[in-house]
Design goal:
Layout: H1 4-30, H2 32-50, E1 56-60, E2 74-79, H3 83-92, E3 106-107, E4 121-127, H4 136-145, E5 147-158, H5 173-182, H6 185-198, H7 205-218, H8 229-242, E6 247-255, E7 258-265
Helix pairs in contact: 4-8, 6-7
């Protein structure tokens, strides 16, 4: 027979899992298409205020929901894999989409954007990208690097409390700084194991490790990190203070499951 305290912990964990699954079910099913329409409509409305005709820039990880922009704005799509490989990865891991994926014009890593010249873009769009980055501090710094003076960084990040990441522990700034110092690969396997256990509901240590290894071998893009709005602000403040690229906050809003930020790169940055 299990000790009383062990039983209490298991019951508490079952209760927490039930609560977040019911919240996710309500958000994803009962609010349905209206909920999703509002998320994308809000993004579009804010983007059209800051992204003007004649601008040219990039969207990272557009996937099956690229930002809707007027044809007078020139946008190229960046992803770490060509469309064919993205579709195969989704199919192999039972992540299906009813929409076509955005074309991939530039194959590159969001963390480095190594093929894009400094100061070459009027804007960078990154919706639900940062949580997929092993090193989000480096990613934001390089997004700022490729912007022209007064360029716009349009970025949205899911608040973990309202997504399937709800049961996962928050990623602290200290964790990100440690990864920055020692290399994000140090904690990479732990994130995959956490994903397998708490998002995909794989049980048993051996099965969790097996699933994590499979995802790593495929180079499958999980949510490495999860935040609430406060931790997001800490992350961006740290980049502002340490990267050499400062910026002003042009817009901040809570958009259902996500927080939407619009930053403008300061003129004095080099």
């Amino acid at each position: 027979m299990l000790p009383v305290m062990t039983m209490k912990r298991q019951l508490m964990r079952l209760r927490e899992n039930l609560v977040w699954r019911l919240r996710w079910l309500y958000t994803g099913v009962f609010t349905g298409w209206i909920y999703k329409k509002n998320v994308y409509s809000h993004r579009t409305a804010i983007a059209r205020f800051f992204l003007r005709p004649g601008m040219s820039g990039i969207e990272i990880g557009g996937g099956n929901n690229p930002l809707k922009l007027p044809g007078s704005i020139n946008v190229k799509y960046v992803d770490k894999h060509p469309v064919e490989k993205l579709l195969k990865l989704m199919k192999d891991n039972n992540y299906f989409t009813r929409r076509d994926l955005a074309k991939v014009d530039i194959v590159d890593e969001a963390e480095t954007l190594s093929s894009i010249a400094p100061g070459s873009q009027d804007f960078v769009i990154a919706n639900h990208v940062l949580e997929h980055c092993r090193d989000p501090l480096l990613a934001v710094a390089n997004m700022l690097r490729v912007l022209r003076d007064a360029g716009i960084l349009f970025i949205s990040v899911p608040d973990k409390r309202y997504t399937f990441d709800a049961p996962r522990p928050i990623t602290t700034l200290e964790h990100l700084k440690a990864d920055r110092a020692g290399g994000a690969g140090v904690s990479s396997k732990k994130h995959f194991e956490e994903w397998a256990e708490l998002v995909e509901s794989v049980s048993g240590k051996e099965n969790i490790e097996k699933r994590a290894t499979s995802l790593i071998d495929q180079d499958f893009s999980i949510h490495y990190h999860v935040w609430t709005s406060w931790e997001m602000m800490e992350l961006f403040s740290h980049v502002h203070e340490t990267s050499g690229y400062s910026f002003d906050i042009e817009h901040l809003s809570f958009n259902h499951i996500e927080v939407l930020f619009v930053f403008r790169k300061r003129l004095e940055d080099k």
